[in-house]
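A.,

Following up on our hallway conversation. Structure tokens first:
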């Protein structure tokens, strides 16, 4: 049995507030997750020898470190089954960009193998397997845009309007551990109720309807990303990328711990037009490295594409 062309979508953090820190060092967060149609693609073939093997696009990654393999083994052990799997992954989501590519791959592996092996686990059971793999993995199994709290594992589904996004990748790697341990990171943002975010969404939609969507872009972002000031101070290319976009009338925000940044639009055509506006104008760091080395125009998804592969 085989499952081919199984999507693993990227995510955006529409805002990200750091509200505290636990004694074990984990940070307490509030954020809103949204999936977009920038996707990795995974392929699965059932094996009878119990072996889990993954052809991964990231060279030098050991099986013990591969989230796809770890997810498959976790499901295999929890379900007590003898099947194995041959897995391959076609990467489009940039690694280490704050778009959750590795976490999404792990979640897709759990969901797809639950079907391929006919293990019959519920969404809640898969989410319990997902959390030890990483704080962002459960939301991809959850399958809905979500308001997240705790370390990111307390999820409440939210309704989001149809939107499109321009995503840009600054040409600089950001270390997530360095960001979270930076002394300049604030960890005392006041917690909000989910209704505050929901009411803000409704206000923005009303303003756009009243204005006839002439400008095309939302009036602004909700809240902030508390990690962004730290990254902008530590990583000059990210600072230059955000400044460049702002200079061209595209206010953007970092997702996760970066380095990727995004701007939101009412329609996909507006995202594409603004993408085209900056192509050919991107400045360089030095002589050869562009400040932004990749861009994508994406649709915001109303649900995870595998939402209905798992029973509630």
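Then the amino acids I'd put at each of the 312 positions:
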């Amino acid at each position: 049995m085989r499952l081919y062309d199984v999507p693993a979508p990227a995510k955006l953090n529409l805002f990200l507030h750091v509200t505290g820190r636990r004694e074990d060092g984990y940070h307490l967060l509030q954020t809103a997750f949204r999936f977009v149609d920038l996707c990795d693609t995974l392929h699965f073939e059932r094996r009878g020898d119990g072996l889990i093997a993954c052809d991964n696009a990231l060279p030098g990654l050991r099986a013990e470190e591969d989230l796809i393999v770890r997810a498959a083994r976790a499901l295999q052990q929890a379900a007590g089954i003898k099947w194995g799997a041959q897995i391959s992954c076609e990467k489009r989501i940039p690694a280490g960009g704050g778009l959750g590519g590795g976490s999404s791959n792990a979640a897709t592996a759990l969901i797809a193998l639950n079907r391929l092996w006919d293990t019959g686990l519920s969404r809640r059971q898969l989410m319990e397997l997902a959390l030890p793999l990483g704080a962002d993995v459960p939301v991809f199994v959850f399958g809905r845009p979500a308001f997240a709290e705790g370390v990111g594992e307390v999820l409440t589904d939210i309704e989001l309007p149809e939107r499109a996004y321009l995503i840009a990748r600054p040409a600089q790697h950001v270390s997530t551990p360095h960001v979270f341990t930076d002394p300049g990171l604030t960890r005392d943002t006041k917690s909000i109720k989910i209704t505050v975010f929901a009411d803000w969404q409704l206000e923005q939609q009303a303003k756009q309807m009243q204005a006839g969507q002439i400008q095309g872009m939302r009036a602004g972002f909700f809240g902030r990303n508390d990690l962004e000031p730290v990254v902008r101070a530590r990583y000059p290319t990210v600072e230059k990328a955000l400044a460049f976009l702002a200079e061209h009338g595209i206010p953007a925000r970092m997702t996760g711990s970066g380095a990727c940044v995004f701007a939101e639009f009412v329609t996909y055509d507006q995202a594409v037009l603004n993408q085209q506006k900056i192509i050919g104008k991107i400045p360089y760091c030095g002589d050869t490295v562009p400040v932004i080395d990749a861009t994508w125009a994406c649709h915001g998804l109303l649900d995870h594409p595998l939402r209905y592969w798992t029973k509630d």
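The radius of gyration is 20 Å. Curious whether your intuition agrees with the design.

B.
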